[in-house]
């Protein structure tokens, strides 16, 4: 064990001798590096402010009561307002959520509450569950235009729903399903085991426990997922371009065509020269999204308070 | 043989927010000796150790009062990056980087400006030899540092610390995560190092402190849960003839 | 007063609860409806011109329906909970259907003209509509309410409870499988639509052909369907987005994870999230209205301001949230011991980041870039608006190879979106094939990213 070798004098001077100069140089490197990072952060904020600011400023000049309550005139002129688009967007959001939420929450409930013991009971079921989870992952990665194509092929053509709220709603539901499943799963996982055990110990069935104890407790998280999906649907264009059509009229039934706000922006920008109207619609869009984001933040804050302050 | 003081602490207090962790510590650590710090869990030994290389500065909400000097220079007036080179640290759990053995040891010198490959090889070899690891790894310095056993990883970390030519080496229970044989090797290694470095070692293992160190400082937790220095002196005295009753109780195993 | 404490689970048929009057009334009503349907079925059968024996379906259907309804009434009379639930659900469905049409009706009236009708009229329409709705809905709603209120009178025997419990489990399993079912449907339907193009045009033509001119009269009039220009467009725009966006994203990620003080984090992180929520059409609009004129300033002939540069810039901003989030996670995941170890050796924080943390986070960082690539490949609308949509393979505009990015192009996604609405036959099928190609590319990219992220853990 006697391998100690005292450093030779020349080596001993190597590092300590370099030190003052080297230190100054390293500190400079750090300052430059941190400066670049700060620049990146600043650029991010600047880009956001520029885009949102420009659209809002340009769009605000267009927004008045008349704009909001007049129907788009269609055609090349780009005249008119955006009244029907607002209502269509609302219809579409409600329809999509009504389809996707029960499916998504149900799937999440199964994956969290039942999957464990089900896989233990039967190998076949365990396989099924693995496939199911994979399915959610794959679905989450599909780009929206593919959902559009799918909706076009299945709902618009094969099932002959044509361009309609129904086709768009079903396609949109497929799009947001993974989002709802993921957030609902997370929300369910945060419910403490003690809640479930307490309920079961009182003689309730598993389903009663889930419905009356677990779901209410996980509700904020689930609602967050749903609000996220709403934001997604409002922002989406490609998928509805191909399933909803582009009619500027108000849909009169589930099988009518229509136009969402985002679609309206696209159609104004690409088929007419009415850029100011497009900016106006875009401004409303952005405001809606920002309000939604705020809602999400408020819900998650309440959620974390609930978990921590318990 | 006159004993030089390498590190001097005067009326040192440390607070985590409002909670006082160290209470009025005053001590002088001699140069080129092994000083052991013993005491029950939670009495602030590690926190105290980390004050010597200002690693506590990385924790938010830490405030200190009093002063620490190295070679009569106030630590707070020195550049902290420079200080940390001069005061090396070996952690409780070995933490080699996810790099090769060579790159682990060469990391320090590289950061401090050594670029020449030959210089680096020399430094790596010397450091590994000083850490009693060279023979075991010399055939494959490109192997990942994480692939070594616990004891070897710790010696790697010691080699890494040695490579930047520190003056002081702080060790926070360096062998506590290791098996007895690896522990023994580390202890022997530390003995060889004291010739060139001032060593301060926190240990839970009293037998280790008794047989390996030159000086021992005994910390205890006060009623306000702050750590304070109970007694400090040559190891032999502390263990055979402690002046405070509390020291004797701790040493004979009546608590802690 | 009947015995309200029925402990006897061995006699599920024994009812020990007093039957509320309300329930009697409702069951009578339901039974009456059943009889009425039976009568109506026979009536219409007799009335039919071809005589009852030739038109036996109507009375038969009426008979079956009425028997089912009478059974329901009997179940309700016997205070069976399944009957109660069924009736509530049936009435509920009818109410929902009616409500939906009422909503469409009311809003149709409000939005009937060019303009929304004046405020006063809105009020009257709304009022009238709601009143109408209430009138129709009130009686069924009362029935439901009554049935719900009398629920304690209905016994639920444990066998039913367990049956419900078990069937719920199966139903939920089916919903869990819905995702993979949808994936299956997507693959099935896009494949079947795309099959025609594989047969008629051929894989090699589509994958290797460099001219996309559906309905072309050059050569024969079957058109040309080479996808190479679109593949090049997708790859180039993605490449540009990565070059512009990744440094910015990773820089922001490092800033957020390692360097920024809290108040900076509070500003930058919400900013990144907000960028993620901006609709792609808004990005496209911005590119059209703001970036295009700016790019046009560059003095190169045939530079329209639209094209790969515009697309790359927009795309870079769009992938920023994705890359930043995952990169930040990867950096945060690096164990603290590495940081302490490096700092204790006298390295600066910057040196620690560059030499220890980033290398340790390498696979996560690469995964973030790859996911960004996947996102860029899948973007459609924003690109259509700024990239020019020309169908030739993009080439540099002059001697400077960089002017390649000033040229216009078309992406795979853009190809689909722009032409799908009017494409027919083999052309349309080729667009579906484009979709499959896209799906395959992105699926591959995501798999690689997931593999890398798992390897890190």
Topology:
The complex is a heterotrimer of chains A (310), B (256) and C (457).
Chain A: H1 9-60, H2 65-69, H3 83-121, H4 123-140, H5 144-158, H6 165-189, H7 193-201, H8 206-235, H9 238-243, H10 261-271, H11 275-308
Helix pairs in contact in A: 1-11, 3-4, 3-6, 3-8, 4-6, 5-6, 6-8, 7-8, 8-11, 10-11
Chain B: E1 5-16, E2 19-30, E3 34-38, H1 45-51, E4 62-70, E5 73-74, H2 80-86, E6 87-90, H3 101-111, H4 117-130, H5 134-137, H6 150-162, E7 168-172, H7 180-193, E8 198-202, H8 206-212, E9 215-221, E10 227-234, H9 235-240, H10 245-251
Parallel strand pairs in B: 3-8, 3-9, 6-7, 7-8
Antiparallel strand pairs in B: 1-2, 1-4, 4-5, 9-10
Chain C: H1 21-47, H2 51-54, H3 57-77, H4 81-110, H5 119-149, H6 158-176, H7 178-200, H8 203-208, E1 212-213, E2 224-225, H9 228-259, H10 262-277, H11 280-296, H12 308-332, H13 336-344, H14 349-360, H15 362-378, H16 381-387, H17 412-419, H18 425-456
Antiparallel strand pairs in C: 1-2
CATH topology of the largest domain in chain C: MetI-like fold
| H/I helix tally of chain A | 11
CATH class of the largest domain in chain A: Mainly Alpha
Write the CATH architecture name of the largest domain in chain C. Orthogonal Bundle
Biggest beta sheet summary of chain C = 2 strands, antiparallel
**Overall residue-averaged pLDDT value of chain C:** 84
Number of strands of chain C: 2
Structural class of chain C: mainly alpha
Principal-axis shape of chain A: flat
Largest contact between chains: A-C, 104 and 96 residues
């Amino acid at each position: 064990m006697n391998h100690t070798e005292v450093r030779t004098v020349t080596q001993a001077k190597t590092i300590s001798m370099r030190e003052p100069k080297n230190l100054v140089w390293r500190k400079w490197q750090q300052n430059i590096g941190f400066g670049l990072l700060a620049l990146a952060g600043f650029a991010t904020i600047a880009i956001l402010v520029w885009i949102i600011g420009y659209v809002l400023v340009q769009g605000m000049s267009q927004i008045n009561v008349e704009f909001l309550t007049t129907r788009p005139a269609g055609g090349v002129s780009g005249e008119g307002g955006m009244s029907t688009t607002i209502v269509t967007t609302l219809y579409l959001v409600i329809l999509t959520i009504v389809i996707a939420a029960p499916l998504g929450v149900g799937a999440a409930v199964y994956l969290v509450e039942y999957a464990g013991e089900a896989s233990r009971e039967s190998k076949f079921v365990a396989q099924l569950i693995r496939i199911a989870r994979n399915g959610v992952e794959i679905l989450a990665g599909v780009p929206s235009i593919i959902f559009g194509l799918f909706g076009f092929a299945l709902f618009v053509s094969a099932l002959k729903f044509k361009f309609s709220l129904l086709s768009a709603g079903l396609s949109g539901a497929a799009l947001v399903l993974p989002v709802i499943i993921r957030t609902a799963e997370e929300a369910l996982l945060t419910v403490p085991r003690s809640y479930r055990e307490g309920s079961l110990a009182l003689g309730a069935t598993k389903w009663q426990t889930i419905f009356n104890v677990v779901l209410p407790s996980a509700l904020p998280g689930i609602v967050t997922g749903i609000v996220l999906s709403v934001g997604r649907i409002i922002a989406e264009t490609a998928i509805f371009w191909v399933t909803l059509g582009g009619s500027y009229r108000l849909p009169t039934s589930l099988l009518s065509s229509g136009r969402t706000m985002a679609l309206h922006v696209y159609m104004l920008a690409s088929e007419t020269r009415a850029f100011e109207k497009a900016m106006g619609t875009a401004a409303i869009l952005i405001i809606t999204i920002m309000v939604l984001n705020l809602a999400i933040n408020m819900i998650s804050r309440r959620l974390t308070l609930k978990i921590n302050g318990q | 043989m006159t004993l030089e003081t390498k590190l001097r602490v005067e009326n040192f207090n440390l607070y985590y927010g409002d909670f006082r962790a160290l209470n009025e510590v005053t001590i002088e650590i001699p140069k080129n000796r092994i000083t052991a710090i013993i005491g029950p869990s939670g009495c602030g030994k590690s926190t105290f150790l980390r004050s010597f290389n200002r690693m506590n500065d990385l924790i938010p909400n830490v405030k200190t009062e009093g002063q620490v000097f190295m070679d009569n220079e106030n630590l707070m007036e020195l550049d902290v990056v420079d200080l940390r080179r001069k005061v090396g640290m070996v952690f409780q759990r070995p933490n080699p980087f996810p790099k090769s053995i060579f790159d682990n040891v060469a990391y320090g010198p590289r950061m401090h400006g050594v670029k020449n490959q030959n210089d680096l090889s020399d430094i790596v070899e010397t450091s590994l030899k000083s850490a009693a690891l060279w023979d075991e790894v010399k055939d494959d310095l490109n192997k990942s540092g994480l692939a070594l056993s616990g004891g070897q990883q710790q010696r790697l970390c010691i080699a890494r610390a040695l490579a930047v030519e520190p003056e002081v080496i702080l060790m926070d229970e360096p062998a506590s995560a290791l098996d007895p044989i690896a522990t023994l090797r580390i202890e022997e290694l530390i003995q060889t190092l004291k010739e060139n470095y001032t060593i301060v070692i926190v240990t839970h293992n009293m037998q280790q402190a008794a047989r390996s160190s030159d000086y021992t400082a005994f910390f205890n937790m006060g009623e306000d849960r702050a750590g304070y220095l109970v007694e400090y002196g040559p190891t032999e005295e502390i263990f055979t003839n402690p002046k405070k009753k509390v020291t004797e109780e701790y040493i004979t195993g009546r608590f802690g | 007063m009947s015995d309200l404490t029925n402990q006897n689970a061995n006699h599920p048929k024994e009812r020990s609860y007093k039957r509320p009057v309300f329930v009697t009334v409702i069951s009578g009503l339901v039974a009456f409806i059943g009889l009425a349907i039976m009568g109506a079925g026979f009536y219409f059968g007799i009335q039919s011109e071809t005589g009852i024996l030739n038109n036996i379906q109507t009375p038969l259907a009426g008979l079956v329906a009425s028997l089912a309804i009478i059974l329901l009434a009997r179940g309700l009379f016997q205070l069976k909970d399944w009957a109660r639930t069924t009736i509530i659900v049936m009435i509920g469905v009818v109410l929902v259907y009616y409500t939906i049409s009422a909503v469409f009706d009311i809003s149709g009236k409000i939005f009937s003209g060019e303009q929304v009708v004046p405020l006063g009229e809105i009020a009257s329409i709304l009022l009238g509509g709601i009143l109408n709705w209430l009138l129709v809905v009130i009686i069924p709603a009362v029935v439901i309410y009554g049935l719900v209120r009398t629920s304690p009178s209905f016994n639920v025997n444990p066998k039913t409870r367990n049956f419900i419990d078990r069937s719920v489990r199966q139903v939920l399993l089916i919903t869990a499988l819905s995702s993979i079912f949808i994936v299956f449907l997507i693959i099935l339907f896009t494949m079947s639509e795309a099959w025609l193009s594989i047969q008629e045009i051929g894989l090699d033509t589509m994958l290797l052909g460099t001219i996309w001119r559906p309905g072309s009269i050059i050569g024969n009039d079957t058109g040309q369907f080479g996808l190479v220009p679109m593949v090049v467009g997708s790859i180039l725009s993605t490449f540009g987005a990565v070059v512009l966006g990744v440094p910015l994203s990773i820089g922001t990620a490092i800033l957020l994870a390692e360097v920024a003080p809290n108040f900076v984090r509070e500003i930058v992180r919400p900013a990144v999230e907000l960028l993620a929520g901006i609709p792609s059409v808004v990005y496209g609009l911005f590119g059209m209205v703001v970036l295009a004129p700016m790019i046009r300033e560059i003095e190169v002939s045939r530079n329209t301001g639209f094209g790969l540069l515009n697309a790359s810039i927009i795309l870079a901003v769009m992938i920023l949230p994705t890359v930043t989030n995952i990169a930040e996670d990867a950096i945060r995941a690096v164990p603290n011991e590495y940081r302490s170890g490096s700092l204790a050796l006298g390295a600066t924080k910057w040196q620690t980041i560059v030499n220890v943390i980033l290398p340790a986070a390498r696979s996560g960082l690469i995964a973030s870039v790859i996911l960004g690539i996947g996102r860029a490949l899948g973007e459609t609308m924003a690109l259509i608006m700024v990239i020019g949509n020309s169908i030739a393979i993009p080439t540099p505009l002059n001697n400077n190879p960089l002017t390649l990015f000033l040229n216009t192009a078309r992406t795979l996604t853009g190809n689909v979106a722009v032409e799908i609405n009017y494409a027919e036959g083999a052309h349309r099928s080729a667009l579906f094939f484009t979709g499959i190609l896209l799906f395959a590319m992105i699926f591959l990219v995501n798999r690689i990213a997931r593999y890398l992220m798992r390897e890190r853990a």
